[in-house]
């Protein structure tokens, strides 16, 4: 929800000159906010991502000072790929969390769908492309099933997906052969994680991203202008386009110095862009926020709440399946531990943590697509950086857990100061 | 006290017939008669106050008029012809809007998003029904200006606003789609005195624009007697009395609510 923040000044002055008597000042006081409250509202709105970005910057600084290898092009490329699987699952979770629901089966979906894909290729001779499509569709169908069950029988999604996750773990074990593993070498699946977009093609992606952002921001700006709404070109068009361009050039020049943009990173980028469009621009996206904010009000206003829920879970399931396929491609095979192993393990916890660290509220109604990216980056940075320093897993868990609690604490404090909770 | 009685079936302040009329409405829940043979008329340009003790049937009656409950007996007439409403959307389509006591706002959304909730202005479906933000914003501004609520921010989440501002946004939403009747359920219950006064002015403005308005309120002395044209008193699921607001005191209304002064204030 990033684009529409302007108005106030010209409309307000225009009103003052109309013959109508002004609004009763006692009853509707114009918002005169203390600086502290204003800052809190900014942090709760436009600058929501600021604390997370600051935290990420601090982490990067610490690790780059500790290890000369951290900022190398090869390591950063590695770090991004490590963030992708968690990030895509987290991206799917954003849809569900916005509703105030949760899906504890996403890791299991990613596991079972990737195993099914491997089985279809290994035992049914299915082509890799078709197997991928079947796996992703299956993920979406499982998600839709969760949504339907929860809305039909009014069972909390927490419970439905907890049970479903265990069921899918069981199915995954049944699908695997006696060796417990399908090898994916030579199937073409390994090319997803093993290939790069490089040279001219990588720069074309940057241009594409800039054009898309510019197009969206320009239409907004023009429409506002044509409706007499104040809109600053610098803030609403030039700034976002410049940020996109600089970020794009930076990322691509770093990655091209290694081998190019890893294909999983490109996939994640495209999914992020689409999700961001859905959440900020479309009616469906707004419905997610509305249901998460006040389901009863959404229902009374005519929003088909159940359909919105089913769609959100289907998207989460489909994205989880896709993440599972990318994970399988990186590991060149599927096994018992695909999908984080029994119970989802670190994969499930990291995906939820990523979304929440990135600024998605577990109570619904608040969060962005970029939350999944930022959260996944933070978790991947902690893992990658501590690995480089030779710190063992136990400390990594301590740090990730502490960051999660810290992030949510900061978030809640901002909300409390801005007055948007406690009502 | 017969002068205090309004002859409810006749013309309202504008001289037109009733825009919304209930005839002999009854509704039972299990064995309980929530509404029994209720007649009520709302004319264009008038504000009708609906009062009564807890359990008198006020909310049930409003839910019947807003299409949430279907009456067991009697008929609802809109602009003179009988209508059947099979849900809240049917009532909205006719032009009957309801402002609920809980306001039904999404605290995490801004005023524009709340005003258009469920009926967003959107572009083509192949672009995912992209919301026309600028157009919505300018229409929202228009409606708020009409209600002289220019100071309300269109871009702050409504959860960060005061109770009065939230109430005003709920009212603005009810008139966004140019209804002919607006029903208010306890609009002033959670408001300070000044904010309640302002809501009273807004409600009067709606009536001055030719809408028929019905207001449920417990605030007899401060609000109902001051801000309405006609007061309908309900007791135990029936209409117990009707008054012209100008000719009645708060005490008389309260007496009718609790069943005192029978035969003096009672309309039937």
UniProtKB/TrEMBL annotation, chain A:
Q: Which UniProt keywords apply?
A: Cell inner membrane, Cell membrane, Membrane, Sugar transport, Transmembrane, Transmembrane helix, Transport
Q: How does it sit in the membrane?
A: Multi-pass membrane protein
List where in the cell it is found. Answer: Cell membrane
What this chain does, per the entry, is described as: Part of the binding-protein-dependent transport system for D-xylose. Probably responsible for the translocation of the substrate across the membrane.
- Organism listed in the record: Klenkia soli
Q: Does the keyword Cell inner membrane apply?
A: yes
Q: Where are the transmembrane segments?
A: 47-67, 79-99, 128-146, 153-173, 193-216, 237-255, 261-279, 310-332, 344-364, 371-389
Write out the GO cellular component annotations.
Answer: plasma membrane
Q: Single GO molecular-function term?
A: transmembrane transporter activity
Principal subcellular localization: membrane
Name of the protein in its database record: Xylose transport system permease protein XylH
UniProtKB/TrEMBL annotation, chain B:
The highest taxon in the source lineage is: Bacteria
Instruction: Please name one Pfam family that this protein belongs to.
Output: ABC_tran
InterPro entries listed in its UniProt record: AAA+_ATPase (IPR003593), ABC_carbohydrate_import_ATPase (IPR050107), ABC_transporter-like_ATP-bd (IPR003439), P-loop_NTPase (IPR027417)
Q: What keywords does the record list, in alphabetical order? A: ATP-binding, Nucleotide-binding
| An MF annotation (GO) of this entry | ATP hydrolysis activity
Q: Describe the location of the ABC transporter domain by residue ranges.
A: 20-261
Q: What is the name listed in the Swiss-Prot or TrEMBL entry for this protein?
A: D-xylose transport system ATP-binding protein
> Which organism's genome codes for this protein?
Klenkia soli
């Amino acid at each position: 929800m990033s684009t529409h923040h302007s108005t106030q000044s010209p409309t307000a002055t225009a009103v003052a000159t109309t013959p109508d008597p002004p609004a009763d000042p006692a009853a509707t006081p114009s918002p005169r906010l203390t600086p502290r409250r204003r800052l809190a509202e900014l942090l709760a709105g436009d600058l929501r991502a600021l604390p997370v970005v600051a935290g990420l910057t601090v982490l990067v600084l610490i690790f780059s000072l500790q290890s000369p290898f951290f900022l190398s092009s090869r390591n950063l490329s590695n770090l991004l790929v490590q963030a992708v699987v968690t990030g895509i699952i987290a991206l799917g979770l954003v849809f569900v969390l916005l509703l105030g629901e949760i899906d504890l089966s996403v890791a299991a979906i990613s596991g079972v769908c990737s195993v099914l894909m491997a089985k279809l290729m290994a035992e049914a001779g299915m082509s890799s492309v078709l197997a991928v499509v079947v796996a992703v569709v299956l993920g979406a169908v499982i998600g839709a099933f969760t949504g339907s069950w929860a809305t039909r029988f009014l069972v909390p999604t927490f419970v439905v997906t907890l049970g479903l996750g265990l069921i899918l773990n069981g199915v995954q074990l049944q699908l695997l052969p006696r060796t417990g593993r399908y090898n994916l070498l030579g199937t073409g699946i390994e090319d997803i994680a093993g290939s790069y977009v490089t040279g001219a093609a990588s720069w074309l992606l940057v241009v594409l991203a800039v054009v898309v952002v510019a197009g969206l921001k320009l239409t907004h700006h023009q429409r506002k202008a044509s409706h007499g709404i104040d809109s600053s070109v610098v803030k609403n068009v030039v700034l976002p386009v410049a940020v996109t361009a600089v970020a794009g050039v930076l990322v691509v020049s770093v990655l091209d110095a290694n081998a190019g943009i890893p294909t999983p990173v490109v996939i994640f980028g495209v999914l992020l862009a689409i999700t961001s469009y859905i959440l900020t621009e479309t009616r469906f996206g707004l419905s997610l926020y509305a249901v998460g904010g006040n389901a009863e009000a959404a229902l009374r206003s005519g929003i088909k709440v159940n359909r919105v829920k089913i769609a959100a879970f289907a998207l989460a399931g489909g994205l989880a399946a896709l993440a599972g396929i990318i994970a399988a491609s990186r590991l060149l095979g599927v096994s018992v531990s695909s999908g984080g192993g029994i119970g989802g393990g670190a994969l499930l916890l990291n995906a939820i943590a990523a979304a929440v660290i990135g600024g998605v509220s577990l109570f619904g109604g608040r969060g962005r697509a970029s939350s999944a990216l930022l959260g996944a980056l933070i978790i991947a940075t902690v893992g990658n950086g501590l690995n480089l320093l030779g710190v063992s897993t136990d400390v990594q868990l301590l740090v990730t857990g502490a960051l999660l609690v810290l992030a949510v604490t900061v978030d809640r404090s901002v909300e409390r100061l801005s007055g948007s909770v406690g009502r | 006290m017969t002068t205090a009685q309004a002859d409810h079936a006749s013309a309202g302040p504008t001289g037109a017939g009733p825009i919304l009329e209930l005839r002999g409405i009854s509704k039972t829940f299990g064995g309980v008669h929530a509404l029994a043979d209720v007649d009520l008329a709302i004319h264009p340009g008038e504000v009708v106050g609906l009062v009564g003790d807890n359990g008198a049937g006020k909310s049930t009656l409003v839910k019947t008029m807003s299409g949430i409950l279907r009456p067991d007996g009697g008929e609802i007439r809109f602009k003179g012809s009988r209508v059947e409403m099979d849900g809240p959307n049917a009532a909205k389509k006719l032009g009957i809007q309801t402002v609920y006591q809980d306001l039904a706002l999404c605290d995490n959304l801004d005023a524009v998003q709340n005003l258009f909730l469920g009926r967003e202005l959107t572009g083509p479906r192949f672009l995912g029904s992209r919301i026309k933000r600028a157009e919505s914003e300018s229409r929202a501004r228009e409606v708020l200006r009409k209600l002289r609520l220019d100071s309300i921010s269109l871009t702050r989440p409504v959860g960060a606003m005061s109770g009065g501002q939230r109430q005003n946004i709920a009212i603005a939403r009810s008139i966004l789609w140019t209804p002919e009747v607006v029903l208010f359920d306890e609009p002033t219950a959670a408001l300070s005195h000044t904010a309640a006064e302002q809501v009273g002015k807004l409600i009067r403005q709606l009536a001055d624009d030719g809408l028929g308005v019905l207001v449920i309120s417990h605030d007899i002395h401060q609000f109902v007697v001051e801000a309405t044209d006609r007061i309908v008193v309900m007791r135990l699921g029936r209409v117990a009395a009707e008054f012209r607001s100008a000719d009645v005191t708060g005490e008389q209304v309260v007496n009718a609510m609790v069943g005192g002064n029978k035969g003096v204030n009672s309309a039937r």
